[in-house]
Design a protein that fits this description.
The protein is an all-alpha fold. It is built from 13 helices and two strands; from the N terminus they run αββαααααααααααα. The radius of gyration is 24 Å and the shape is globular.
Length: 295
Amino acid sequence: MLARWWRKNRAAALFLGPWLVGTLVFGVLPMLVSLYLSFTDYNMFKPPSWIGADNFASMLTSDSRWSQALKVTIRYVFIGMPAQLVTAFALALALNRGIRGLPLFRAVFYIPSLLGPSVAISILWKEVFGQEGIFNVVTGWFGMEPRSWIADPSTSLYTLIALLVWQFGSPMIIFLAGLKQVPKELYESASIDGAGAVTRFFRITFPMVTPIVFFNVVMQLIGAFQAFTPAFIIGGGDGGSLDSTLFYTLYLYIKGFNEFSMGYASAMAWFLLLVIAAATYLLFLSSRKWVHYEN
C-alpha cells in the first residue's frame, strides 16, 4: 500500500516536502518550545526552570506596564483599523466610478501599503511630526504653536494611528475588486424603481460586498494587533513618553531581548495569540448577522 501510494503521489510529496519540513522546523516546533517556555523562568543564559502559571499570574495581577501596553494596543486597533477601512472603502467607491487613469491611481494609492511598515517610513513619519517637522509648518499657517506631536503623550499614539490609516492601499484594492463584481443590473433595476444613491448603497452595494468587508476586517485586525515597527522606531524603542506608544509587541520585545526574561515574553506571546483568536472568533460569530453570501 505504501509503494502504491508513493507511485501515485510522489510528485506532490516531492513538491510539498520542503514546505512541510520548513513549517515543522520553523513554525510548529518553535511554537511548541515557546509554549513550554511560557511556564518557565528562562533568561537565555541558564536552563529554564519550571514555575507553572506564575508568568501569566504576574501579567494579570502585578505588571502595570503590561496592562498599559494592552490598553495602548486596543486603542490603536479599534481606532486605527476602522478609520483605515473607511478611508479605503471611500476611495474604492470613488475609483469605481470609472475615472480616467484608473490603473495609475490604483498604483499610487497602493504604494503606502508597500512602504508603510518599513523602517524608512517610520523614520520619515517621526520627522514629519517632530518639533521642526512639516506638520508644524502646516499647522503654523493657522496660528498653532509648534510642538512635538511624537513626544506629547496626548497625541503620540494618534500619529501612529495616522500612519496606519495612511496604509489603506491593500484593503482599498480588495474593496475595488469586490465592487466591480456587483452586477450592474441591480443598480439599473433600483434606479427604475426610484432608489436614490444612498438607498442603492445600503440596499445593494454594501450587502453585496460584505464578504469583502469581513475579509478586510479580519486581516487588518490581526495585522494591527501585531504592529511593532512604528512603535519601536517612532516611540524610541521604550514606549515613548509615559508609555503612550508602548505597543504590546514592543513590550514583549523589551521583556524578551532587553530584560532577557524570555519565559515571560513567551507567556505574553501566547496571551496575544489568545486575544487575536478570541477577537477573530467573535467576528466570525457576528458575521452570521451581517455578512451576506449568494446563497
